[in-house]
Each structure stands twice: as C-alpha cells, then as structure tokens.
Amino acid sequence: MDCMNAKYVSQKISKTRWRPVSAASLQQPDVFATGSWDNENNKLCLWGVGENAGCPMEDELEGDPQLLCECEHSGDVLDLQFLDQDRLVTASSTGSVTVYKVHPANQTLSVAHVWDQAHHYERANAPCTGVACNSPELVSVGEDGRVVLYKADQRGVVRVIENADSSTIHGVTFLRTTEVLTVNSIGQLKLWDFRQQGNEPAQILAITGDRVPLHCVGRHPNQQHIVATGGQDGMLCIWDVRQGNMPFSLMEAHSAEMWEVHFHPTNPDHLFTCSEDGSLLHWETSSGSDAPLFLQGRNSSTMSRSATAPAAGNQSLISAWLNGDSSKGRLETTHMLPSHTLSVNSLDVLGQCLVCGTDGEAVYVHKRVRVNVRPKENGYSLVEGESGR
C-alpha cells in the first residue's frame, strides 16, 4: 500500500484500463484511460504515469498521474476496452458503441467510428452495458438482451443475436475467436458460438437456488475454459465451462456488489476484484506446489468446493483454481486500498501496475504489485521488484 498513489479527478470513475504495451518489450504500462459516469458532462481521459507524466523514473512512484488529454463522452461510460495500442472502445448508456483513435504524437483522442443505437428498445435507446475486444472483432451487450458482433474497420454490423436474453446482459468476454461468454441479471452464464446460426446459446451455466444477478466475468488468460464471475451478493465464483453447468467453487469475497474481476494477464494465479463496499482485493493461489488451492485468506474470506471435481488428466495442466481437496491448500487475499472508500467501480492490472477508479472521484495507481512466486523449501514466497512475465 506504500506504492499506492491517489489522484482526485472531480469525476466519478466508472471504468479504467491500461493501454497495452508490446509483448516483446520489457516496458511496464505508462498510460491508462478512464471513463466517467453520473456526471453532468461525462469524459473519456488518458493519463500518464512515470516518464509519460513528465516525471523522472526514480520519482515515478511519488508522482501523481498526469492528464494527457480528454474528450466529452455522450452518456455514462458503462464499459471501456482497448482494441489495440492505438484504439479503444466505449459502451454508452445511450446505447452507442464508439471506437476512439489514440494519437500518441500529440496526445489526443478522436472518434474513429460510432455505432449509434447499437442497443435499443422498440421506441427508446437501451444502455450498452459491456464490450469485449479480440481485434479486429469486438462484441457488445446491453439491457435489451442483444449480442452484437462488429469488425472495427467495418461500418456495418457483422452479426446480431436479437433475443439472446430476456434479461439484462451485464458483461461479456471472448473465450475464443468465435466464442463469447455473457453473464446476466438472473445469474446465468451463456456461451455463444458465432459459427452457429440462430439465437440459441451453445451452453447455459448457472448457480442453483436464488437467481442472483451476475455483474462481471473474467477469463483465465491461458486456459479459456476457466472463468471467474462476481455478482450482487459479492460472491466470487470459479467456473470450468467444460465440466457441467455449475460453478466449481464459490468464495465469500465482498459484502456488497462485485463490479469487476480480472485474472492477471501473465500470472493468472493472481486475481483481482473490486466492489461497491469500497474494497479492492488481490487473490493469490498456491499454484505449482503439491498442496492444492483453498482455504482461508487474510481477510477471513472463505471458499467452499462444489461437488464437481476436475476431470482426471495431466495434473500439470490443471489450473490451481481447479485443484481439488480443499483441506490441503490455501487462497490468500490482501486488501489493496489503504482504507475503505466509496464504491470501487473498476480495476485493471498489467505487469506490476494496477489502476482502479471510484465513486469518490479518485483514481488509485499501484506500480509495485507483487505478482511473482518463487519456490522455497517450505512453500512459496512472493518476489517483489520483478516484472510479471
């Protein structure tokens, strides 16, 4: 928490994302985007940290993020994703999906294309609640229950699943090039295969019992069949879409709605969640040891396994998130923010860098997130000061 910088931005922040860096470079991310909501005039902003903010590298932890550029955004920014290093996409409460071009030379943003009324009711716009990108494709979902597929360089729409859901779709992620997974307001996950015709999902998964709305979904970066979801009850669920239609595990994560969940993109034994309760949690599994995952973390979060165990096979290929026998391992959780604040609406993590945005009109940046593990004789220890590759 000593490395966490707070920047007060006079806007309620709904979404924040790091600009991607080249996979071949050793560079840590140094630019992030924010979108606002519930303000008189909402904005899309780019911020710089470290050298991009005009700070020498040795002072990068002490310097606040610096505003590089901003533009007004029509409606609330309900989702925000980078398509690539030079383009980002927003989902608006007006129902539109917009692609913005980033101009690094003069640090400006410009609108490349807008799909107006991408989501709508019969006589009114419907909020676009989520977007996912797999360049050049992108997909959007909304309160109207539609799933829309686009190509960033085409003005038309590639595919529309008109009646994908009778309830609000809150989130979407690509599993593969032709498959996306959505979560909705009645606690269901639906798998959509764009190779199939019609409006029927290829698979439906759900938690039995109360239909608690799911607000977010995150995909494991290496094993696409593993996803994490969070919802209205603050529970974190881990799913294996290959194994039945129930979650593999459920964890008591937050005391209020969970807004986002993200696996670390290169160290997926680490996972991050944020909530309406004002907390931001870092979850770490005990991957690679003989002891499987599971039990109690430092903030008294608990885990319980479902009855479904992972299929037999090469154990080295089974993610730590799906290891069995809950009595032998552990899952540690750490609070990332120095104290509880207003709702933490969004987070993103890349390399050793984490950023989150809140309803308290603040952005928090952490540049030394500990995401590496090194084996020791008596278990595992975290390694600080190395990049997450």
From TrEMBL:
One Pfam short name: WD40
Entry's InterPro entries? WD40/YVTN_repeat-like_dom_sf, WD40_repeat_CS, WD40_repeat_dom_sf, WD40_rpt
Enumerate the UniProt keywords alphabetically: Nucleus, Repeat, WD repeat
Q: Which Gene3D superfamilies match?
A: YVTN repeat-like/Quinoprotein amine dehydrogenase (2.130.10.10)
Could you tell me the superkingdom of the organism this chain comes from? Eukaryota
Which windows of the sequence hold WD repeats?
207-249, 251-293
Q: Which GO terms describe its cellular component?
A: nuclear pore outer ring
Q: Where in the cell is it found?
A: Nucleus
Q: What is its main location?
A: nucleus
Q: What is this protein called?
A: Nucleoporin Nup43
Lineage of the native species?
Eukaryota, Metazoa, Chordata, Craniata, Vertebrata
